[in-house]
Amino acid sequence: KENMANHSHNLAEVFGARGDLDSAEKMFRKALALNEELGDKEEMATQYAKLAEIFETRGALDDATDMHLKSLALHEELGDKGNMAANYGNLGVLFRARGDLDNAEDMHFKALALYREIGGKKDMAATYSNLGNVFGTREDLDKAEKMFRKALALHEELDEKNGVAV
Question: What is the Cα–Cα distance from 119 to 14, expressed in whole angstroms?
């Protein structure tokens, strides 16, 4: 079953890369069902996150949010701070897309706290940029500038030319 789950996941990735979202969803769900039988919470969390990406691509933001919340719950149970932070960041992006700026800000600050805790400077920079976008959407330009400057400083520190350019 573990091999079947892995192969189903890999096939889902191929289908997704080809743009065949229906087949990708079907294979991710198959991998999820197998991982549920195996009790592999880490892989289940991955499947939920992948399903969230599919739903987000389709514009089904409520479904994407539900999948990220399921992934987050499993990562919290496992104590996986890096993936918890990624879930919070993804939820922040979804909330901003839906116009829910208060929840977007909250999610990004939760992500930022976890990235700070684990020393994920590159991810901190991305989160500062996301916060800049939230504050920019609110037209709070002073806070937006502050967030973008923090992102820029981290990209410069990490010598990430693309991040500096953005």
Answer: 32
